[in-house]
Amino acid sequence: MKPIPSILFPLLLLILGAAAPSSASHDYAEALSKAILFFEGQRSGFLPGDQRLTWRANSALSDGWTYNTDLTGGYYDAGDNVKFNFPMAFTTTLLAWSVIEFGDRMPPAEQRNALVAIRWATDYLLKTVSQPNRIFVQVGDPNVDHNCWERPEDMDTARTVYAVDAPNPASDVAGETAAALAASSMAFQSSDPGYSETLLRNAIKAFEFADTYRGAYSDNENIRGGACPFYCDFDGYQDELLWGAAWLRRATQGDTYLNYIQSNRKTLGADDNINEFGWDNKHAGLNVLVSKEFLEGNMYDLQSYKASADSFMCTLIPESTSSHIEYSPGGLIYKPGGSNLQHATTIAFLLLVYADYLSRVPQSSVNCGGISVGPASLRRQAKRQVDYILGDNPKGMSYMVGYGNYYPQRIHHRGSSLPSIRDHPQFIACKEGSVYFNSSGPNPNVLVGAVVGGPGEDDAYDDNRVDFRKSEPTTYINAPLVGALAYFTANPDPS
């Protein structure tokens, strides 16, 4: 290769600098604070006096009235005004897991804010399992909601309540709700033991419903029209049973749940789809979670979970012979389907959690087809994803709204894109919001901390409100990022 003429070095450095800004400039503590603040913009219900995103106001205060029950609260999942419990429960589990693993690395104020974010969800989830032999799985008709572009404060669309009564199954939503409540019980154990006990008691009840009446909630014809194609159970309900049991094992240390995840591993397909993790597929997270017990306790009956976790980690290492995870030219983990940053944040979180588990065992590493991968390597892989999101990418754009000087201005989000009720107190009807949706101007309300769906396989991003696959933020993108940012706040240069 010919040497590069010295006169070109300044130009080369300028090009490289524009393509990939230095991660040394990242303020992980600031990003963490904003990632948590985002959840206040997603709140449904009666907002408290200390609400920090003041362009939001009360909404959906009559949720549940058709069942003569209170179903107010919880989170809107993304840029719409529907409460989908399946992804909301997963979001809650990941927020709680973030606090369990990395809460002690958060600044105290942010640890409190993270617990507030968790509780906003768990207070609602407790309501959804408050009636015997029934679980509420969704509030709001998405087909009607998605036909409008209006603020949650103005909502006049049907707030349809979707409930599953025994013996109809909802193993996926009930299992994930059990996981969320069990994980949250651990997060609150020291700060609010009474609330922690309430959460755990209801987690056990939710899991009993999930396991007794087995099946997918979206197979129910009364639910399918509301859940699908948005949050159908595409990958089966079996993983949520193992996932819920694994969290109950960790929260209770009870042999009942240990026996469950040991004896049901094959029948519930623990070895299937082990390289996926998200709101619909829990396998990779399940294997990482259970591996902790194997690593620390030498419970050989759990060895297969550890083997599957190792296999997943190896797919993320480009040098590994088993590698098959795709990366964009700029280094972003890529999986087909849209909203790609959900994969980057969940995988980054799992990399950090697994690295921590391995680091507690002397000389522990992962064997990836002839190369040995240790905790430091896994952490570096995670850092590349987090830094990409914060601006180390070919566009030099932060994909977190409000972080850095260059971030998405036209996110696909009703409340953010419409004038706030404080600035425009007059009612904006369903179709009257279309002018704001179609506007080329920036959103008037900054949804600080929102991480958008992000670029695809070519690193391209056009900041277009209409392209929801790229421009819409979701709670389940942010939740695992909270944990990853907490880790890097305390350890900005992992080793």
Automatic annotation (TrEMBL):
It is an enzyme of class 3 (hydrolase). Residues 28-485 form the Glycoside hydrolase family domain. PROSITE patterns: GH9_2, GH9_3. It comes from the Eukaryota. It catalyses: Endohydrolysis of (1->4)-beta-D-glucosidic linkages in cellulose, lichenin and cereal beta-D-glucans. GO terms for molecular function: cellulase activity. The active site is at 412, 463, 472. Its EC number is 3.2.1.4. Keywords: Carbohydrate metabolism, Cellulose degradation, Glycosidase, Hydrolase, Polysaccharide degradation, Signal. One of its GO terms (biological process) is cellulose catabolic process. InterPro entries: 6-hairpin_glycosidase_sf (IPR008928), 6hp_glycosidase-like_sf (IPR012341), Glyco_hydro_9 (IPR001701), Glyco_hydro_9_Asp/Glu_AS (IPR033126), Glyco_hydro_9_His_AS (IPR018221). SUPFAM superfamilies: Six-hairpin glycosidases. Residues 1-24 form the signal peptide. Belongs to the glycosyl hydrolase 9 (cellulase E) family. This is Endoglucanase. It comes from Punica granatum (Pomegranate).
